[in-house]
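Hi R.,

Here's the chain you asked about this morning:
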Amino acid sequence: MLIDTISLELFNNTEHWKENGQLILHDRFFMLRDFSFARKDFLKSSQPYRLQEGRVVIVKRGSASYSFNLVDYHFQAGDVVVFLTDTLVEKKGHSNDFEVDALSFDYDSSWLPPLDRGFLCHHTDSHTYPIVNQHFSLMWNMAQEADFPADNIKALLNSLLIFLNRHAGQPSAMPASRSEEILRRFITLVSKQAARERNIPFYADKLCIASHYLSTLVKQTSGRTAMQWINQTAIKEAKVWLAYSDETIAQIADRMCFTCPASFTKFFKREVGVTPTEYRQKSF
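And the predicted structure, written out as tokens:
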């Protein structure tokens, strides 16, 4: 079982945040207000994470750089970020005054609106910020009722996502040219499939282009080879499972479609410099 790292951290440190009145927890739903990363640093820069729940984050102060599904983004005060389930996250760095409001939710397409893409970033202005903040404030107030009003929270979240989907522009990292668009689609596929599929023909087939053309395009557009993207992403996935699951090395090797644990260990040590067992020991 893979653990949603941030949720685990919050549920294991409830008293710290409840003393400050900044955290609401209900089952797998949580809300944070005025969360300062200077007070408690959740994410290690060297450790990738895969989040199992959706998030809406409002950057209130400061700035930060993160990678979402292998693409780097820079956020600043006023940005609202939405990402759905199964997101590979890496922290690149943040300012000392980085502060956010955030909520977590189980994304269920049966009642939440279909988003144009799995990641949205909107820089609010004098018109949109009050509307976003009002949605957060209403959910915050309602979530504190003794009888948790799940239907009201869902309705407000639905409304917020529809509003953001309509107003969010293309993230700054989104591509413009055809080559960049193919690269974006390749990276998206790799972020989801590299744990199991580590050969270029698989991705070329999914993108309906020749393998040699994909290899050339990826190298010319990104400066990295297709296999570097695939292998480095597979390593990130392995690191997530080693650090935040209770599965054995053999189970992780099987999950990642290696022929045997020894093959997985050889691959991991070649890319990282230590064995999976050594990495797991250092992570705790």
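The first strand starts at residue 23 and ends at 26.

Let me know if you need anything else.
M.
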